[in-house]
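chain below, 258 aa
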Amino acid sequence: MRIQGRTAVVTGGAAGIGRAAAVALARKAAAKVVLVDIDDAGMAATVRLVEAEGASGAARRVDLSDLSALAAGFEALQAEGGYDILYNNAGVVSGGRQFPTAGAGQIGFVMTVNLLAPILATEIAARGMQARGGGVIVNTISTVALGQGFSDALYASSKAGLQMFNRCCASLKDSHKVRVAGVLPGLTDTPILHKTGDGKAADWMAPILAGYAKCRPEDIAEAVIQLIEDDSLAGGDWVAVRNVEGRIEREWGHDTVA
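prediction:
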């Protein structure tokens, strides 16, 4: 899809990969970039960056852990004119309380934000995009969905589920003219790394931070732009992005589920 003149929605757009993707979309001449997050100050800062690139920016406060609020927010965006691109980027880690001590509330929170929210957002977006003639949806998954490099059981399980969901959306390209794709970041230098403990990286993160080179948010955003622009890709396709000894490498997956 050509991004120029399009309207895009980015969840988790207040910082990190979401902010980098929002700015990248603006640089590609998107007409409007709508941020969905709960961090008002972060969204305001991203809006300024988006508008500095010449696009219109907007912020919409939606708590993605509340599926009723998510549905209302995304239906409102449809009623206000709709959008052509959805980047389901928002995600959370379990924090300091790891399974099996996380408890029902934390388990529900992680699974809702990381898995149920993008599923519901995709369902609403796919219907709206079909009425507009089509669109592109990109989901931020993780290389942990490939079974690599993370000990957070809740995060890893939610991302593995999102990977399967992404693949199951392959048929939407034919049925709805909506192409769904996934980006699988390796370890990336974003604020989420500092939310695994009390204001710092949790102790269980130490081996991961020591053993893997980090991508920049912009490295992931570049892959997101490619996924959006390349309409030759099949529905359900994904790309993993890793920093390997200072080199950004991409691994493509083209498998689909009927």
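The chain has one domain: 7-253. The mean pLDDT is 92.
thats it, cya
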